[in-house]
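Our collaborator T.R. sent over the components below with a one-line note: 'Predict the complex.' Nothing else. No constraints on interfaces, no templates requested, no preferences about which chain binds where. So this is a plain run: every listed entity goes in together, and whatever single assembly comes back becomes the starting point for the next discussion.
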Amino acid sequence: AQSVTQLDSHVSVSEGTPVLLRCNYSSSYSPSLFWYVQHPNKGLQLLLKYTSAATLVKGINGFEAEFKKSETSFHLTKPSAHMSDAAEYFCVVSDNSGGSNYKLTFGKGTLLTVNP
Amino acid sequence: EPEVTQTPSHQVTQMGQEVILRCVPISNHLYFYWYRQILGQKVEFLVSFYNNEISEKSEIFDDQFSVERPDGSNFTLKIRSTKLEDSAMYFCASSEVGGSEQFFGPGTRLTVL
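Returned assembly:
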Protein backbone atom coordinates (compact mmCIF):
# COMPACT_ATOMS: atom_id res chain seq x y z
CA ALA A 1 0.00 0.00 0.00
CA GLN A 2 1.14 3.53 -0.63
CA SER A 3 0.38 6.78 1.13
CA VAL A 4 1.49 10.39 1.20
CA THR A 5 1.58 12.84 4.07
CA GLN A 6 1.91 16.52 3.38
CA LEU A 7 2.98 17.98 6.66
CA ASP A 8 1.54 21.47 6.19
CA SER A 9 -1.94 22.25 4.96
CA HIS A 10 -1.04 25.91 4.48
CA VAL A 11 2.28 27.68 3.94
CA SER A 12 2.57 31.43 3.71
CA VAL A 13 5.73 33.16 2.44
CA SER A 14 6.74 36.62 1.31
CA GLU A 15 7.60 37.24 -2.32
CA GLY A 16 11.30 36.67 -2.90
CA THR A 17 11.77 34.34 0.08
CA PRO A 18 12.39 30.57 -0.12
CA VAL A 19 9.60 28.04 -0.33
CA LEU A 20 9.61 24.67 1.42
CA LEU A 21 6.65 22.30 1.07
CA ARG A 22 7.12 19.09 2.99
CA CYS A 23 6.10 15.61 1.93
CA ASN A 24 6.66 12.16 3.38
CA TYR A 25 5.63 9.00 1.61
CA SER A 26 5.10 5.35 2.30
CA SER A 27 5.39 2.71 -0.37
CA SER A 28 5.90 -1.03 -0.40
CA TYR A 29 7.90 -0.88 -3.59
CA SER A 30 10.25 1.43 -5.36
CA PRO A 31 8.06 4.48 -5.83
CA SER A 32 7.77 7.17 -8.38
CA LEU A 33 7.09 10.53 -6.80
CA PHE A 34 5.56 13.64 -8.24
CA TRP A 35 4.58 17.16 -7.35
CA TYR A 36 1.53 18.59 -9.07
CA VAL A 37 0.26 22.15 -8.84
CA GLN A 38 -3.34 23.30 -9.09
CA HIS A 39 -4.12 26.95 -9.61
CA PRO A 40 -7.63 28.16 -8.73
CA ASN A 41 -10.24 26.72 -11.07
CA LYS A 42 -7.56 25.02 -13.13
CA GLY A 43 -6.52 21.42 -13.70
CA LEU A 44 -3.50 19.60 -12.33
CA GLN A 45 -0.13 20.48 -13.79
CA LEU A 46 2.98 18.35 -13.29
CA LEU A 47 5.80 20.30 -11.66
CA LEU A 48 8.37 17.55 -11.46
CA LYS A 49 8.85 13.81 -11.05
CA TYR A 50 11.25 11.34 -9.52
CA THR A 51 11.50 7.93 -11.15
CA SER A 52 14.64 6.34 -9.63
CA ALA A 53 17.19 8.39 -11.52
CA ALA A 54 18.88 11.42 -9.93
CA THR A 55 17.67 12.09 -6.41
CA LEU A 56 17.62 15.86 -6.93
CA VAL A 57 14.93 16.62 -9.44
CA LYS A 58 14.48 19.95 -11.17
CA GLY A 59 11.07 20.98 -12.41
CA ILE A 60 9.35 23.87 -14.04
CA ASN A 61 9.22 27.43 -12.73
CA GLY A 62 12.37 27.04 -10.63
CA PHE A 63 11.04 24.31 -8.35
CA GLU A 64 13.08 21.31 -7.31
CA ALA A 65 12.68 18.37 -4.98
CA GLU A 66 15.06 15.92 -3.36
CA PHE A 67 14.25 12.26 -2.89
CA LYS A 68 15.62 11.02 0.43
CA LYS A 69 14.99 7.32 0.84
CA SER A 70 16.36 7.18 4.38
CA GLU A 71 13.88 9.83 5.47
CA THR A 72 11.08 8.73 3.08
CA SER A 73 10.76 12.36 2.10
CA PHE A 74 10.32 14.30 -1.10
CA HIS A 75 10.20 17.95 -0.09
CA LEU A 76 9.56 20.66 -2.69
CA THR A 77 11.67 23.81 -2.65
CA LYS A 78 12.14 27.03 -4.54
CA PRO A 79 14.80 29.62 -3.73
CA SER A 80 12.62 32.67 -4.32
CA ALA A 81 8.83 32.76 -4.32
CA HIS A 82 6.89 34.64 -6.95
CA MET A 83 3.32 35.88 -6.66
CA SER A 84 2.31 33.52 -9.46
CA ASP A 85 3.39 30.53 -7.33
CA ALA A 86 0.33 30.94 -5.14
CA ALA A 87 -1.61 27.70 -5.65
CA GLU A 88 -2.34 24.30 -4.13
CA TYR A 89 0.49 21.78 -4.34
CA PHE A 90 0.04 18.03 -4.23
CA CYS A 91 2.66 15.44 -3.46
CA VAL A 92 1.84 12.22 -5.26
CA VAL A 93 3.21 8.68 -5.15
CA SER A 94 2.90 5.92 -7.69
CA ASP A 95 3.51 2.36 -6.64
CA ASN A 96 5.71 0.64 -9.23
CA SER A 97 4.78 -2.78 -7.99
CA GLY A 98 5.21 -4.45 -11.33
CA GLY A 99 1.69 -3.74 -12.46
CA SER A 100 1.36 -1.36 -15.30
CA ASN A 101 -1.45 0.71 -13.88
CA TYR A 102 0.56 3.35 -12.00
CA LYS A 103 -2.34 4.34 -9.81
CA LEU A 104 -1.55 7.71 -8.24
CA THR A 105 -2.08 8.38 -4.56
CA PHE A 106 -2.36 12.05 -3.66
CA GLY A 107 -1.53 13.89 -0.49
CA LYS A 108 -4.11 16.26 0.97
CA GLY A 109 -2.39 19.25 -0.57
CA THR A 110 -0.57 22.33 0.69
CA LEU A 111 -1.98 25.73 -0.05
CA LEU A 112 0.85 28.15 -0.77
CA THR A 113 0.14 31.82 -0.18
CA VAL A 114 2.64 34.40 -1.39
CA ASN A 115 2.48 37.81 0.23
CA PRO A 116 3.75 40.95 -1.51
CA GLU B 1 1.61 20.41 -27.08
CA PRO B 2 -0.90 17.56 -26.84
CA GLU B 3 -3.33 17.78 -23.94
CA VAL B 4 -6.19 15.93 -22.34
CA THR B 5 -9.55 17.63 -22.81
CA GLN B 6 -12.76 17.17 -20.84
CA THR B 7 -16.37 18.15 -21.45
CA PRO B 8 -18.41 19.69 -20.07
CA SER B 9 -16.46 21.95 -17.76
CA HIS B 10 -19.44 22.13 -15.40
CA GLN B 11 -22.44 19.79 -15.15
CA VAL B 12 -25.43 20.39 -12.92
CA THR B 13 -27.88 17.54 -12.43
CA GLN B 14 -30.69 16.40 -10.20
CA MET B 15 -30.21 13.60 -7.73
CA GLY B 16 -31.04 10.25 -9.32
CA GLN B 17 -30.23 11.36 -12.84
CA GLU B 18 -27.61 9.76 -15.03
CA VAL B 19 -24.59 11.76 -16.12
CA ILE B 20 -21.84 11.07 -18.61
CA LEU B 21 -18.54 12.87 -18.32
CA ARG B 22 -16.39 12.91 -21.40
CA CYS B 23 -12.66 12.94 -21.91
CA VAL B 24 -10.39 12.93 -24.92
CA PRO B 25 -7.01 11.53 -23.87
CA ILE B 26 -3.74 12.28 -25.62
CA SER B 27 -3.87 10.41 -28.90
CA ASN B 28 -0.95 7.98 -28.49
CA HIS B 29 -1.74 7.14 -24.88
CA LEU B 30 -3.21 3.76 -24.04
CA TYR B 31 -3.84 3.98 -20.28
CA PHE B 32 -6.73 6.06 -19.01
CA TYR B 33 -7.79 7.09 -15.55
CA TRP B 34 -10.52 8.88 -13.65
CA TYR B 35 -9.95 10.69 -10.38
CA ARG B 36 -12.24 12.86 -8.33
CA GLN B 37 -11.76 15.67 -5.86
CA ILE B 38 -14.57 16.50 -3.48
CA LEU B 39 -14.44 20.16 -2.48
CA GLY B 40 -11.83 20.68 0.21
CA GLN B 41 -10.56 17.11 0.06
CA LYS B 42 -7.73 15.34 -1.69
CA VAL B 43 -7.75 13.91 -5.18
CA GLU B 44 -8.85 10.26 -5.12
CA PHE B 45 -8.29 7.50 -7.66
CA LEU B 46 -11.43 6.01 -9.14
CA VAL B 47 -10.47 3.68 -11.96
CA SER B 48 -7.83 2.81 -14.52
CA PHE B 49 -8.55 1.42 -17.97
CA TYR B 50 -6.42 -0.36 -20.54
CA ASN B 51 -7.11 -2.47 -23.58
CA ASN B 52 -10.83 -1.91 -23.31
CA GLU B 53 -11.16 -3.13 -19.78
CA ILE B 54 -10.82 -1.91 -16.23
CA SER B 55 -7.35 -2.54 -14.83
CA GLU B 56 -8.01 -1.40 -11.30
CA LYS B 57 -10.77 0.35 -9.42
CA SER B 58 -11.13 1.85 -5.98
CA GLU B 59 -13.80 1.22 -3.37
CA ILE B 60 -15.49 4.42 -4.51
CA PHE B 61 -16.08 2.96 -7.98
CA ASP B 62 -19.18 0.94 -7.19
CA ASP B 63 -21.93 -0.39 -9.45
CA GLN B 64 -23.24 3.12 -10.05
CA PHE B 65 -20.09 3.94 -12.00
CA SER B 66 -18.97 2.67 -15.37
CA VAL B 67 -16.34 3.61 -17.93
CA GLU B 68 -16.25 3.16 -21.63
CA ARG B 69 -14.14 3.91 -24.65
CA PRO B 70 -16.91 4.14 -27.22
CA ASP B 71 -14.64 5.05 -30.12
CA GLY B 72 -10.99 5.63 -30.83
CA SER B 73 -10.77 8.95 -29.08
CA ASN B 74 -13.29 9.37 -26.25
CA PHE B 75 -13.16 7.95 -22.74
CA THR B 76 -16.31 8.35 -20.67
CA LEU B 77 -17.35 8.05 -17.05
CA LYS B 78 -21.02 7.33 -16.42
CA ILE B 79 -22.76 7.69 -13.11
CA ARG B 80 -26.09 5.88 -13.35
CA SER B 81 -28.04 7.45 -10.51
CA THR B 82 -26.30 10.42 -9.03
CA LYS B 83 -26.23 11.12 -5.32
CA LEU B 84 -25.55 14.38 -3.54
CA GLU B 85 -22.19 13.02 -2.44
CA ASP B 86 -21.12 12.56 -6.06
CA SER B 87 -20.69 16.31 -6.30
CA ALA B 88 -17.00 16.80 -7.02
CA MET B 89 -14.44 17.74 -9.62
CA TYR B 90 -13.74 14.78 -11.87
CA PHE B 91 -10.37 14.58 -13.56
CA CYS B 92 -9.47 12.40 -16.50
CA ALA B 93 -5.84 11.43 -17.08
CA SER B 94 -3.90 9.40 -19.61
CA SER B 95 -0.44 7.89 -19.87
CA GLU B 96 1.71 6.08 -22.38
CA VAL B 97 2.21 2.37 -22.23
CA GLY B 98 4.49 1.62 -19.30
CA GLY B 99 4.84 5.28 -18.49
CA SER B 100 4.18 6.56 -15.02
CA GLU B 101 3.59 10.19 -15.85
CA GLN B 102 -0.11 10.90 -16.11
CA PHE B 103 -1.39 13.92 -17.95
CA PHE B 104 -4.51 15.45 -16.49
CA GLY B 105 -7.39 17.22 -18.10
CA PRO B 106 -8.85 20.45 -16.69
CA GLY B 107 -11.66 18.60 -14.93
CA THR B 108 -15.45 18.56 -14.95
CA ARG B 109 -17.18 20.06 -11.96
CA LEU B 110 -20.26 17.95 -11.20
CA THR B 111 -22.94 19.47 -9.00
CA VAL B 112 -25.76 17.21 -7.86
CA LEU B 113 -28.82 19.01 -6.49
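Summary for T.R.: Chain B has a mean pLDDT of 92.
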